[in-house]
Structures are given as C-alpha cells and as structure tokens.
Amino acid sequence: MFWTKVFVLSLPAALLILTLSGGAEGAAVRDDAKAEEPKGAARRIFMPESDASNFFKRRGRRSVRYQEMLAEQRVRQSQDERRREYNEEQRDEYENYTEEARDEQNERMREKNEQVREFHYDGMYPRYYWYH
C-alpha cells in the first residue's frame, strides 16, 4: 500500500518536470537540409550515403577471393580424384598378384598331393577314395 502512494505522488511530479524542461522538443525527426557531421565513433562506423551506394555498385556479386577459392577447390578435387584412381589401380594390381600367387601355390600343392597318392598307392583300395 505504501508503494502505490509513493508511485501515485511521484508520477505527477515527473510529468511536471518534463513539461517545464525545454530540452525535449518532440519525437519527430528534424528536417534539416544540411545534416550534421557525425562525431567520434559515429564517423568511423557510418559512411556517407554516396559512398555506401557506390560500395555495392563497384563490388561484384562474387569477389575475386571467392573465385580463387573455387579454383583451388577444383584443383584439390582433381588431385584427390587422381590419388583415388592411383590407389585403386595399385590395389587391383596387388589383388591380381596375390590371386595368381595363391592359385599357383594351390596348383603346386595339388600336383604334389597327386604324386604322393600315386606313389603310395598299393592297389588294395579303390583309387576313387584318393580323389574326393
């Protein structure tokens, strides 16, 4: 209850002070033909309107750096593709080599086993038992 009384009494006092002070002319924007020169930090942040419009006219949609980046990316992709093809070719050659070596080893083993079976065959058992 105490706070509401303080608020109600301070509100008219604030309105009286604002109406009597001459600092506030209004909320409308002044229409000056000559704009004031920005001071301090505003000068560093904002640029004149003509410079701002020329900035976008001069500057192309895609910058030179972007084009360079795309060219480097294409070179990188082509290098990756060549490296991938080379590695695939090497892997295929190695697989072919190992397959041939394995086949050759299996053939030698098969021939050796046949020779052992023929040498040790004593005629008592049918030969088809040896070749199943």
Tell me briefly what this model is.
With 132 residues, the protein is mostly helical. The protein has helices spanning 2-20, 41-45, 49-58, 64-120.
What does this structure look like?
The structure is a single chain. The chain has 132 residues and is an all-alpha fold. It has four helices and no strands. The protein has helices at residues 2-20, 41-45, 49-58, 64-120. The longest helix is centred in the C-terminal third of the chain and has 57 residues, at 64-120. The mean pLDDT is 78.
List the helices and strands and how they pair.
Layout: H1 2-20, H2 41-45, H3 49-58, H4 64-120
Radius of gyration: 47 Å
Strand count: 0
* Tally of alpha and pi helices: 4
Low-confidence parts: none
- Main sheet overview: none
Beta strand %: under 5%
The geometry reads as: elongated
Tell me the structural class. Answer: mainly alpha
The SSE string, one letter per element, is HHHH
What is the percent of helical residues? 55-70%
Terminal CA distance: 109 Å
